[in-house]
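Can't paste images in this forum, so I'm doing it all in text. The chain is below; anyone willing to post the predicted structure tokens underneath?
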Amino acid sequence: MESDRIHEECGVFGIFGRRSINAARYIYYGLTALQHRGQESAGMAVCDTCGPIGNIGAHKDMGLVNEVFSKEELRKLVGNIGIGHVRYSTTGGSTPENAQPVFINYAKGTIALAHNGNVINTDEIRAELIREGAVFAGTSDSEVIAYRIAKERMNTSSIEEASENVAKLLKGGFALLILSPRKLICIRDPWGLKPLCLGNIGNITVCASESSALNAIGADYVRDVQPGEMVIVTEEGVASKQILFSDKKAHCAFEYIYFARLDSRMDGIGVYEARIRGGRALAERYPVEADVVTGVPDSGLTAAAGYAMQSGIPFELAFARNSYVGRTFIKPTREERTSAVAIKLRVIEDVVKGRRIVLTDDSIVRGTTLANIITEMRKFGAKEVHVRISSPPFLYPCFYGTDVPDNSELIASGATKEEIRQRIGADSLEYLHIEDLDEMTCRLPLCKACFDGIYPVK
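Text version of the structure:
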């Protein structure tokens, strides 16, 4: 199923304990709660500030969090501060060299950096660094940013000053966590494209891509990092500075449609309620006579519940999911991916046989997965299948850290709604109206570029 899905680039997690704590253990559980944001690689870097200035220890590799970090590896990572990262690559290859955090040794010390998002002007920054003699092991934005901060630190009085100077050069969507032996620095892009929030457990400060990661370690949510804000965490406490400015905000709409976990809150909006409102909007705008409402697991289930609430049509689960099948996007051929989808998701005959079905999902990218699902539903006796999508049609690529492919791979870019309906084999097809995104997110200012082509950052 993942072969026909939109993916976030990654998730970040940082922690600073003002006493001796096992930072690696907290980071492990925080990253596990962010695993949905990236499954290609995982890593963390930690340091001990409770004695003499120590070295930053790090470990990262390809795979899921529980695959990368054995008990033995976690025992080696000793310290009370640290950062972690899970990655799905949209820029740079899917290789160990591009796993994060990025770790840089330089004349004045050591830093580690974890980054969520995509910076659209890193080629310019990279070219300048190469002219100055830098050699890169990977191709990711994160390595370029880390090298630039290390270089800037040579001419500044502090790591936060160096980080601020570099952040002012960046264009795009980014949430940065920077770890030095004594400090944790968090920076969010001025448009608010990428999420970042703060929490605490007593005198332990936590920063994460989503509030669900705070909940996973027993931390209380404090607030979101504001767009353009830099937060500096030290032994003395938490300091804040507004360093980046924009005349408009543009939070990623797809966080509320699909990326974020249901139990997260982002910029004051509960993700679960937002998706319920999206389903309600679909039912109000596009009613249909049907016997049951269901959703594609897991991405379409909440919108299906909202559709059922608004329409009065009963909601039922129509699929049994095998959670132990490997990730389908790593299968090498289309035939193997299709077979894996069929094994992973099975239709429940008692729910669909002889019935008119409303089927919801979060998006249609290429349409192949949804076509396979509808075919299976008809094999098990579905009388009608009416598809409702809880996002507008994808028409344009994303440049800020989401892997919306180019127009040639977006089915809605080259086909009419009726043509798409025929290709997927549905009796009817409707998308969320783009204006309904505003109601879904309580009029939070959104980036809708993948739907309307209006890009907030040039």
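The longest helix spans residues 271-285. Residues 295 and 304 are 5 Å apart (CA to CA).
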